[in-house]
Automatic annotation (TrEMBL):
Gene from which this protein is expressed: yeaB
Protein name: Coenzyme A pyrophosphatase
Organism name: Shewanella ulleungensis
Transmembrane segments: none
Entry-linked InterPro entries: CoAse, NUDIX_hydrolase-like_dom_sf, NUDIX_hydrolase_dom
Names of the cofactor(s): Mg(2+); Mn(2+)
Amino acid sequence: MNKHEFQMRYRLHQLSAAIASAPTSYLGRQAAVLIPIIEIDHQLQIVLTQRAMHLRHHPGQISFPGGKVEPTDLNAIDTALREAQEEIGLSAENVEVLGLFPPHKTFTGFEITPVVGFVKQPFELIIDPGEVADCFTVPLSFFINRDNRHEVFHYRHGKRYHVHFMPFEDRFIWGVTAAIIDLLCRHVTLD
C-alpha cells in the first residue's frame, strides 16, 4: 500500500469506534499520541518509540510519541504534535494530519486520543533521553498482515478484556499501542 492508497482508504472508510478500551466510568487524564507514518524507499513505515526506563508510567514500553494534554494545548492534535517535537524532534510543520481515532481509556487512568499523520519529509531524529530510550520504524505491511497481530484475554476484577500484542524482531509491542495499531490496520483494510 502506498501513501495515496492509504490516504484514500483512511478517508473513505467510516471511522470505527471499535477500539478495545478499558470500560471505566471515570474521566481519565487526557492524553494524545501521534501515529507518525513515513514513506521510506516506497514503503510506508510507522514511527514508534521505546519509553525511557526511569519514567513513572509504562517504563520501557513501546509507544507512539505523545503525552498528557497541557493547559496551553488547543486540542488533541496540538498535544500530539507538541509531544512529537519534544520527544523525537518531529516538527508540526512536517506532519500532515489525516484525522483522529476515538479516545482509548486505560486501566492506568488515561484517556488517549490517537492522531494519524503523515511525515512529509525525512527529519533529523533528536531523541529526548528524559522521555525516550529509542526510536525506530516498522513497515505498515508487517502490521497489516493479520498473522502478526495477536490478542489474548486478561481478567481483571472478574471481567474479561482484550489485550493486543505484536512481536516485531526483538521488540514486544502490546497494550494501548498495539490496540491502536490494530484499529488503524482494520480501518484501512476493512479487516
